[in-house]
Amino acid sequence: QKEVEQNSGPLSVPEGAIASLNCTYSDRGSQSFFWYRQYSGKSPELIMSIYSNGDKEDGRFTAQLNKASQYVSLLIRDSQPSDSATYLCAVTPLKTSYDKVIFGPGTSLSVIP
Amino acid sequence: SAVISQKPSRDICQRGTSLTIQCQVDSQVTMMFWYRQQPGQSLTLIATANQGSEATYESGFVIDKFPISRPNLTFSTLTVSNMSPEDSSIYLCSVAPPGRGSYEQYFGPGTRLTVT
After folding, report:
1. Which of A1, A3, A10, B34 could serve as a FRET partner for A23 with CA atoms 20 to 30 Å apart?
2. What are the φ and ψ backbone dihedral angles of A82, each rounded to 5 degrees?
3. pLDDT band, very low/low/confident/very high, at A97 (cuts 50, 70, 90)
């Protein structure tokens, strides 16, 4: 089992819809969870971090964490064509002794005008 | 977040040669990380560079192939040695600035390397 898994996509949603991106992780002791956005040809950009169970909202983005199910998701409301990118889920496993982050394979999102 | 620059932004190199990539941060950071992102793939951590100590390499990466320097708290270099076409990739440095949430990392613009 891979440490961090995501649906590779591509995920296509119409403009204005809600995009739902999902991520599961294998290390039950993981403590920190991140979502990065990566436009084609660019480096990853941190858009959300979440550390405790529940929802965390920032503008049109909501991160949801369920540690019991080892599941983290990102919801993008009112999706815009500019949201078209690859979204990387990242997790810090408990077993590491330093600030190591494990990245998932990414989900490609396409928002159709 | 920290402002991170990398040099060169891209390069085309011949097989068997070496390339040194520089990463500069506008503030002092303890942890700097080097990643590789092969075409269409996610990020793979090569090593973690701490100032004043040897870099910590991930499984599958060795110091002879990817020597790293960390002379101070704002600068690091990664060398890709004895390159082969399989080393063609984007190389990214990242930092975890103090004062941010635990483990939040911010990335430089990357170095696109092509080995012919």
Report:
1. B34
2. -70, -10
3. low
DSSP lists the bridge partners of residue B36 as: B44, B91
At A41, list the tokens: 């040809």
Question: Two tokens at A84?
Answer: 């078209």
pLDDT in tens, A32-64: 899 999 999 999 999 999 999 999 999 999 999
What is residue A31's DSSP assignment?
-
- Which of B115, B111, B116, B114 has its CA nearest to residue B34? B111
**CA–CA distances in Å: residue A46 to residues A7, A31, A57, B104:** 19, 17, 14, 8
DSSP state of A2: -
Q: What is the C-alpha to C-alpha distance for residues A7 and A106, in angstroms, rounded to an integer?
A: 7
Partner-chain residue, chosen from A46, A99, A104, that has the shortest CB–CB distance to B31: A99
What's the Cα-to-Cα distance from B76 to each of A34, B3, B5, rounded to whole Å? 24, 14, 11
Instruction: Please tell me the number of Cα atoms within 13 Å of B71 on its side-chain side.
Output: 6
Contacts of A105 in chain B (CB under 8 A): 41-42
Contacts of A69 (CB under 8 A, 6+ apart): none
Question: Distance (Å) from the C-alpha of residue A43 to the closest C-alpha of chain B?
Answer: 5
Cα–Cα distances in Å, from B111 out to A7, A13, A74, B58?
27, 32, 29, 20
Among B51, B32, B16, B68, smallest CA distance to A100 is for B32
What is the nearest CA distance from A67 to chain B, expressed in angstroms?
Answer: 17
Indicate the DSSP class of residue B26. S
